[in-house]
Amino acid sequence: MMLRVMVMVLGLSLPAAAQLQGIEHASLADTQVLQGTVFHVQGIDLDKEHIWITSVDSTAHKGYLHQFNRKTGAFERQVDVSDGERYHPGGFSISGNSIWVPVAEYKPNSSATLLELDKKTLKVKRKISVADHVGCVAITKDSLIAGNWGSRKLYVIGMDGKVIRVIDTPSQNQYQDIKFVNGMLVGGGNLTKTTGAVDWYEWPSMKPVRSLASGTTDRGRLYSAEGMTVKGNDLYLLPEDGPTRVFHFVIDK
Length: 253
Fold this sequence. Notes:
Blueprint: E1 26-33, E2 40-46, E3 50-57, E4 62-69, E5 75-80, E6 88-89, E7 93-95, E8 98-104, E9 112-118, E10 124-130, E11 136-139, E12 143-147, E13 153-158, E14 163-168, E15 174-181, E16 184-190, E17 196-202, E18 208-214, E19 227-231, E20 234-238, E21 245-251
Antiparallel strand pairs: 1-21, 2-3, 3-4, 4-5, 6-8, 7-8, 8-9, 9-10, 11-12, 12-13, 13-14, 15-16, 16-17, 17-18, 19-20, 20-21
């Protein structure tokens, strides 16, 4: 089903994001249903041909990276990324021929492994251990930015696995998926079950640049609650477990 919604604020304040029918200062261009089974969705990223999703099966203690056809939404393949007691994959990022996926214990103040997977074979190329739960990761030219449980802290980690810097997140927004886009860090998350936002920060100063409030889907799910990625002015959100839908918004310039 193709939907198109223009969010307009006609000189009125918005005390709660739940009043929105979509994303502030953005229009819903299309909604794509993905054909295949996923569990509790966590993150999303995409390239020209594929949509990639992480999800966690908390009953079986398994975490997965799923690949779908971007044009048709058809399921193509998946890989189990579980690492023993670490089976919770989070928000992830594609960089060149690599997919960086955090896989953590399903509890705060625990541990995680950052996996670098080959995008073609889905085999592990590198592992980096982190002494905290990591729920999302973004990739700069020379480092990884990893958010812990609720992204209260951001760890800047070198490609050698050493922690370079620890940042207290300057927002109460609990980022579930983060991306590094055009020299800025972008995070999508929730403030409450029905309010949240997608935020932009200058890097490395972490000075706030822009924040777009998030509304809820027709199923009552906060758009920014889980997976998020940005490609130019195109914002893709994955808030629902199943039937899983990818919501494509175009951000006002």
